[in-house]
Each structure stands twice: as C-alpha cells, then as structure tokens.
Amino acid sequence: MSKPDLLCLATPNWEGDYAKTIVEIMTELSQDFRILYVDYAFTFKDVLKGHPDLPLERIKNKAQSLRALETKRGTEIHVLTPPAIWPINPLPAGPLYRFFLKQNNARIRRRVRWAMAELGMNDPLVVDAFNPAVGRYNTTSLGKGRWIYYCYDNIAAAPWLKKHGTYLEKEFIPLTDGVMTTSPGIQREKEPLHNRVGLVRNGVDFELFHSGFRDQALRADENAAPILGYIGSIDDRIDYQLLEALYQAMPQAEIHFVGRVMDEGLVASWRNRDRVVFHGAHPLEKLPEFLSTFSAALIPFVSNEFTKGIYPLKINEYLAAGVPVISTRFADLSDFETSVDLCEGHETFVQAVQSAVLEDDAEKRRRRAEVAQGNSWSARAETFKSLLREWFPGEY
Q1: In 324-376, which ranges are continuous DSSP H helix?
Q2: Staple 306 to which of 65, 157, 215, 233, CB 3.0 to 4.6 Å?
C-alpha cells in the first residue's frame, strides 16, 4: 500500500546546526507519509548580498531544486528549494505589501506545483509550519487535501515575523482544516480562532541525547569547577541578570554556552570573563558530548508574551542525558513539576542550582532519563496522527 502524500511549507531549512521542531516531526512522519518539504525562501536581497547559507544553484535552477534525502530513520524525504522572492518585510501593511506578497506566493507556488508534478502528488495533506505568509494565499491552489497549521511559537511576539505575521495568521487560520500547537499556551491562544486546535508537544531524539548520559553524578566536591550549561540560541529570551546573580553566587562554577549568538550586544560583557565559555553552534550529534560534562543544565528564560508560548526542545534533551535541569517558570511546564526545578525569582533559581550540583545522584539521573524517553519524537508523531484520525475519520 502506497503512503499518503504530505506537503510541508516550512519556515526553516531542512538542514542546519540546530534542532528544529518541524524537521523532527517530519522525520518521524516520513515513515507513514511521502513528504515534500519546502525550504525557506531566500530573497533577491539575500542573493545580491551573498548570504552565507545561500544554495544559489538550487535557487536559480529549477532542475536542481528538488532533492531526495535520507533521514536518520532510513526513510526518504524530498526537499525543495524555492526561487528567490522579493524582500517585502520592511514594507508597511497595505495594498503594496499585499501585491508583492501575492507575487512572492505565485513564484513559490509555481515551483511547488512543478515539484508535485515531478513526484506525482495531486492532493497532499498540507502542513504549513509557522508560515502564514505562504499559507494565506495558497489554500485553494495546491490540490484538494486538508490544510494543517503547525504553530510552534507566538507569532505576535516573534521579532522576525510579528509585523505582518500577526494579522496574516488571523486571516489564515480560519482557512485551514485544523491547527496543531506545541505548547498549552499557544493552544489556548488559538482555540478562539478555530474549532479544531490540538496539542503536539515538542519531543526529543532520545537515543541521540541519551548517549550523553552519565550514571555518575558530577558532584561539586569531585569536580573543582562544576559546569553549569546552556544549549540553544543565545538571544533575548535569556535573563542575563539572573545569570549574573548565578555567576556571582557560585564563584567555583563555570558557565558554558553552546549555540548561536543571535545578538552580540547581549553577550559583549560576558565574552572575556573568567569561568565563562562560549562554544558556538555545533551539530546535534555533538551536543550529547557537552551534556555529559554538565553538572546542571539551565533554562534561564525571561517571562514575557513570547516565552509563555514556548515548549523548549532543550528540556527533554537535558533530561535524556540525566542532567539536573533548572528552569524559570516562563511558560506552562506543569508536565515537569516532578522532574525539573521550576523557579520563580533569581534567589530561588540560584539556590536550586546550588542544591542540584550538591545533591545529584545516579537514581535521580535515571528517573530524569525515563521522563524524556516518554517524550520521544516517535511518541509525538503518534499524537499528530491520532489528531488527524480524530478530526478526519477514514482519511489518514
């Protein structure tokens, strides 16, 4: 029996050196669906400036734009590079923006239709991954399949999307057949906009991150410089005043950052400090090596409109390695009340880190890993499919 077709209109590229929710869920779904994944559309401005990640030949040459890649599950996924589009985000909302948005959509749509024809796709299930600017004007143009909006952030608080994304999302959601969200906070926000809103929490590649598991706790008295680690994008989600309090309160500890620095101005004062290390971005496969050295893993996020909708990938990645996890209460993380130290206030956070470093043991590490194992991407894909079956009986 042939697999049903799925077209994913994505925001991020398939490849890259950081974990992506939509890539992980599509990898799992590729075991049950034949998937065409449409990459991020670079602009003409990117082409002229020579963006470092620019796949220029695939952008220019339609014949080279469609690739078949093998996933880590041993399945095949088709990845399409769109043509260049107009850089319209600086434009104000209004007729001119709409005109060029439709032009951009037409350019993307033509290449997607070509790829669908190449693959023999007619009426795929369409998953729009946090990309309402593409979905808004395409719901009747890419076959007759169902449309799912897969929403993994609060678009109204996303600096790179909120200007136009906020109103386009509100226009787009009623045109879809259902909305899948990745956190309870986002689910509550979208429920007034559609009668089908489901929750598919973020997961973890358990096998990969459990490879960083250490049965032996990294105690402060056995390690002259316990490492307090953070993995992920280094940006304005982080409470740097909280980290300052931690840095001052634990002079024996080192703070290690593993990830992309999104705004150098935010970390300038941290660059040349003793006991602070920036490792830069690393492939996912390398992250367990870092986790195996952590005495405690941090999620020191501020609480605001953007972060309240986050279900952080790193929480299960940390747990899979058995590391003590200390987080602020920036969002609804009630699933982790017994496995993560969820803290309100700087003093409480610092005390929790100090206790975790002193009191960690092998049994606690095993229990943390067990929690993460139940939150695998495979389990999340089953939730995704069960929502499809619930919403559209007999179709998937």
Answers
A1: 346-359, 362-373
A2: 157
Angle at 178 between CA 177 and CA 179, to 5 degrees: 145
Token pair 């095949």 is found at 76
What does 2-44 look like in DSSP terms, one character per residue?
PPPEEEEE-SS-SS-SS--HHHHHHHHHTTTSEEEEEPP--BH
Predicted confidence at residue 159, as pLDDT, reads 78
Contact 276, 247 (CB under 8 A): yes
* Separation of alpha carbons 136 and 174, rounded Å: 10
Q: Which residues pair with 325 in a beta bridge?
A: 297
Cα dist from 281 to 257, 273, 284, 301, whole Å? 9, 20, 9, 19
CA 183 – CA 330 distance, rounded (Å): 12
Q: Is 101 left (phi over 0), alpha (psi -120 to 50) or beta?
A: alpha
Q: How many domains does the chain have?
A: 2
Could you count the other beta carbons within 10 Å of the beta carbon of residue 171? 12
Domain residues for 276?
206-373
Claim to verify: residue 192 and residue 220 sit in the same structural domain: no
* pLDDT tens digits, one per residue of 49-63: 988 889 999 999 999
368 vs 350: CA distance, rounded Å: 20
pTM of the model: 0.91
Q: Is 65 in the same domain as 25?
A: yes
